[in-house]
Each structure stands twice: as C-alpha cells, then as structure tokens.
Design goal:
single chain, about 160 residues, mainly alpha, Ferritin, about 0% strand
C-alpha cells in the first residue's frame, strides 16, 4: 500500500509539473507574439492544460496529495528559454518548432513516468494517458504550423 501511495504521489506530481510547464510556456509565448495564425491554437491548448491542471488538483485533493509546482528556478528557465528563442525569430514556423520540441519533451517525460509508476492508482494513470493523448494531438496541430512560410523582410529595412 505504501508503494502505491508513493507511486501516486510521484506520478501525479510528474503530470502536474508537465502541465505547468506547458501552460507557462504557452503563456510566455502568447505574451510576446502578435501572430494570429498560431495564437488561436495556443489559446485552445492553454485552456485545455488549465482544465487538466484542475483535474489533477481535484485528484490530489481526494487522495491527500500535495502537488509541487515547478520551483522558481524551473519557472525562470522556461521563461528565459522562451525569451531567448524568440530573440532569434518570432515567425510562426519558429514558434511551432520551439513548442514542438517542448511538447515532445512532455510526451517523453509522461511515458517514462507512466512506465516507472505503473503501480499507481488507475485514476491517476488515466489522467496521465489523457494528457499524453492531448499532447500528441498538440504535436500534430503544431506540426502544421511548420508549413507556414516565414515572412521575408525587405533588405532595405
């Protein structure tokens, strides 16, 4: 029983951290861009991340688990990564690439967590699988934005 409780704690925290990084990354990107073509997609993703965060919090509450948000250093790393990446380019294509990499990292982390904590409660594993499927869909949607040609600026500018 103690092993399952530890698996519940660890898997739920992995899910929550994954969701928080996704939400923070999108918020950081959205606050720094004005591109209509990708903004709608990111807003939809952000809303769904938020729904999953609430579901995660409800499960944690019902199981008397304290969720751990990313610490200040992790949040700063996400913020800095977005800022630095947007300095090189803020094209739709570049933003899609940046978020695709982050999404794939999230998928990898979730698959590893599901494997490592396979004795966790079914409700928690079900949430992890829903988030995993959501991130796979995000990957497919973001992939389409790689096909948007970047604007070429006049060399005289």
């Amino acid at each position: 029983m103690e092993i399952e409780k530890d698996a519940n704690l660890k898997l739920l925290n992995e899910i929550y951290k994954n969701l928080r990084v996704g939400t923070q990354s999108i918020e950081n990107v959205l606050s720094n861009i004005k591109l209509k073509d990708i903004t709608l997609e990111l807003s939809k993703e952000s809303s769904q991340y938020y729904v999953f965060e609430k579901e995660c919090a409800m499960i944690a509450n019902s199981k008397d688990i304290n969720l751990k948000d990313n610490n200040f250093i992790q949040k700063t790393q996400v913020w800095m990564s977005v800022k630095i990446n947007l300095m090189s380019s803020s094209s739709t294509q570049h933003i899609a690439e940046m978020l695709l990499i982050g999404t794939m990292m999230g998928v990898i982390d979730l698959v590893k967590a599901l494997t490592n904590y396979d004795n966790a409660d079914e409700e928690i594993k079900s949430l992890a699988n829903k988030v995993l499927e959501f991130e796979r869909q995000n990957f497919d949607h973001l992939f389409e934005f790689l096909k948007v040609k970047p604007e070429i600026k006049d060399e005289k500018e």
